[in-house]
Amino acid sequence: MRRGRALRILLAVGLGFLWAPILLLVGYAFSADRIPFQWGGFSLRWFAALAANDRLVEAAILSVRIAAGAATLAVLLGGAAGWALARFGPFRGRALFGALIGAPLVLPEVVTGLSLLLLFVALEGATGWPAGRGATTVLLAHATLGAAFVAVVVQARLAGSDRSLEEAAMDLGATPFVAFRTVTLPLMAPALAAGWLLAFTLSLDDVVIASFVSGPSGTTLPIALFSMLRLGLTPEVNALGAVIVLGVGGMLGLAALLLRPRAG
Amino acid sequence: MKARLAVLAPAWAWLLLFVAAPAGILAAIAFAEADPGIPPFRLALSGIGFATLAEDTYYLEAFGTALRVAGITAGLCLLLGYPMAMAIARARPGRRVLLLALLMLPFWTGFLLRVGAWIGLLRDQGWINGVLLALGMTEAPLHLLYTEGAMLAGMVHAYLPFAVLPLFAALVRLDPTLVEAAEDLGARPAVAFLTVTLPVTAPAAAAAFLLVFIPAAGEFVIPELMGPPEAQLVGRVLWQEFFQNRDWPVAAALAVVLLVLLLAPIRLFQRLEARP
Description:
Chain A is mostly helical. Chain A has eleven helices and no strands. A two-stranded antiparallel sheet of chain B has the order 1-2.
């Protein structure tokens, strides 16, 4: 199977291309050298420097708070929208509803960011709210973006089963609310959890939309990191990369360990 | 019925306020006049923003560069992603999960950190130049960063996993007996690939191409941090018009034209996705 080997080599090349920059970024986080990506002996000094960098630490805390709020709103909104699209049949304006909820998936980030900023400026001009831009406007923008992803995940999950489950519950005497709580909601739950995580990650990773809709009080971690990278690389970026990669890797490893099928 | 309304009404309100209204305001400002006030425009049906775009070849080139760079990025992702997807689809099911995890994990490590890693590798005092100098393969550091090649490496790195996923989904569903039948009938593996595998997975390949092309066409961060100064993609020009020149009508007009240009690819992508 020469063909199989060629494919495996190409896969290894592709995965190597994806991983090499990340592994080097993490490895050189432990270098004492002042120049990033130069080895100057093992040291944890850049982790200490990162922890002492108030600007980055504050930005990271703000980012996590915005991401958690946006993901929660996105799950409520996207969950409702995905449920409606999967289960409500042909309601009035369904096509427009689907196009609006899905629009952030296909629009370029610069277009989403610019149009939301123009909305916030127009709203403030007309009603006085939101007074200036910052964490709140970033949260609203990220909730809208996240809801698009949650709706897709929830709709796909519910499409895997039909309405007969809820109908059976109601035939057995459940009220629509009880049928929703005991049948539909448990069915949606994995999609809601996955959607929350996806929306949380998207919010934590977004720099373009946040840069448009943010203000002086809303410096998220990506915004701070972007302005750092514009000026040049510092070893603190390596340290931050190591914290995030090892943190995410550790959490996923733990999840895999907890979820692994038990032997026997 | 009342319960349905209680679910739909807040969702409708949110979508009309945060998706539909911004699109309308964007279109209105694209037609407005620039004005030195705050905010820097005056509502009118002037179309001066679009006229500016049409008059200055700088903007035309920005669209051309963006579409070209997005096309090259998507093409490279397809070329590298297709064999990767094929190798993953042929792996044992247990191994597949691990390989897919290895493919998607870089996405979870943060977009800007990956760009930062590339800057660390490619800049004049970077890792690659350090290795080349130590090996005596170059006398002076090579200028790798702020080139079109650096920008493309960064873009392919960012988008490659998204191209592999739809290809993998199609290849794993491909009935292996089809390929076996072709080979039993005397087709060489290359012929079987070209006449069976490739045509069957062509829609997925088109979807993978568009999944990269559509966001790449509006890309701002990678050209800004890794590309050459002359790589003025439309995303970058829009940003400069808005934040540096404070020309809101021109920025909004750029966004509207970009959207119109992407409508056909977006529609095509949605039709490919909706296929059974």
